[in-house]
Amino acid sequence: MFKKLIILSSMLILTNCAAPGAVFLGPSITAARTGSAYQAGLSYGSTHMIKKTKESYEKIKKTKKIVHQQIVQFNKKVKFDNIVLNNQKELFFKAVKNNFKK
Prior knowledge:
mainly alpha, about 0% strand, elongated
């Protein structure tokens, strides 16, 4: 019983390693069904193109998110700097006016 359990669990774990080989399963079925190598190549090429497009889209989304976060941080810094500069500007003008009065 224990041996069957180990074999079953190892088969479940090792079947996850076979997923990349399944890429060729679709085109081989197409070739066997239609007998056309061109259609099989088209099937493989379109699957590959869709996969690459999806990966690129995910990278663009991640990049967009990072850029958005940096812009928000930059805007917060600019607003803070403007507040500090406005306060310093007012203090400077008050000091100059006080010096002219003396």
